[in-house]
Amino acid sequence: MSRRWTGCSRTATWRVVLPPPDGNDFGEIIVEFVRNGAYLKCSAVHVATGREVSAMGPANDPRGVERVAVAKLKRALVLNG
Question: Which of 8, 13, 49, 56 could cross-link to 32 by cystine, CB 3.0-4.6 Å?
């Protein structure tokens, strides 16, 4: 995974290139975090299709919230072709 960080105030955004699972290349994903108090919202956007999903969770576990958002996006891409 490669990351390029751009941050400002409560929002952090970076691009992630996922390794191909099972021979399917998902391509580039933009990941954005927005913190609101004790909560963190992670949005993941597939660059090629524009499909977007989001997940919310505790602000003290950003990796976990990111994993959920990326997993939701993978599922949405697989189910909807």
Answer: 13
